[in-house]
């Protein structure tokens, strides 16, 4: 599927998406798992309905070690429904540890997750991931690679990642965040391992949306180099849905605001796959219909005009975008 379900908002009680109180009546482990199961049921149902002519539309689930119990929820869901590994695409990430102990609010300055891109942490977390979703895993990603974390120059970790790819057949990727996502993408594209040398990373997962468009050129370079492009935070944690220009243009398009926001991302020339951050079945259903909106944005004259207008009318300065994002409260 070109649109997958990201588990960042379903695997733990607190996250930075707007209006979570409206959509999550229970924040207990059992309540969150039940909610996650319902949304995953919707994903699998829509995938089955979209499959035809002998072609499978494989559901895609994206987890991380730091998304609370996301890997546990996904693994238990798939096993309880007897899903075969070839009937689902699961991606996950290592590099952060969840430390919020199932709390929504923490003392000022206390983090919900702690980053560690060292070799010992990779070796620890990869075994944790394998225990929970190993038979289903297709893509393993470095979570939020930065220049400062050392992951881009740590050849020991690079070799360990490559060994995992050889032993398990997994693809390797990295996710990026912040104002210099484009610089990190280009740096990652140049990393090679083995003899003869091969590129270390097969994919990049990047924040890109109608507000934050700065990484677009680097993402096109990555796609042209043969990397898979995955987009996270396509709705900017809900902020796009409050943008007056997007709301105006979605009404003109005759679609929901989330569908225009995600459709505009799907219509980009770097041909991305996109993650939904839905926490309800209705949200996911609406998000998945962005595929049809994307087609109109690229094939009809009115759609092309609206795409041009939404990209021009919603774009923010990257520094301002990330400053505003850093001010979002866990809720």
Structural class: alpha/beta
Radius of gyration: 19 Å
| SSE arrangement, N to C | EHHEHEEEHEHEHEEEHEHHEHHHH
Number of strand elements:
12
Tell me, what's the shape?
globular
Give the proportion of residues in helices.
40-55%
Give the name of the CATH superfamily. Answer: NADP-dependent oxidoreductase domain
Span from first to last CA? 29 Å
The biggest beta sheet is recorded as: 8 strands, parallel, barrel
CATH C-level label: Alpha Beta
How many helical stretches? 13
Global mean pLDDT:
96
How many domains? The number is 1
CATH topology: TIM Barrel
What share of the residues does DSSP label as strand, in percent? 5-15%
Widest sheet, order of strands = 1-2-3-6-7-10-11-12
Low-confidence stretches: none
CATH architectural name? Alpha-Beta Barrel
Domain NADP-dependent oxidoreductase: 57-291
Protein name: NADP-dependent oxidoreductase domain-containing protein
Pfam family, one: Aldo_ket_red
InterPro entries: AKR2_Oxidoreductase (IPR053135), NAD(P)_OxRdtase_dom_sf (IPR036812), NADP_OxRdtase_dom (IPR023210)
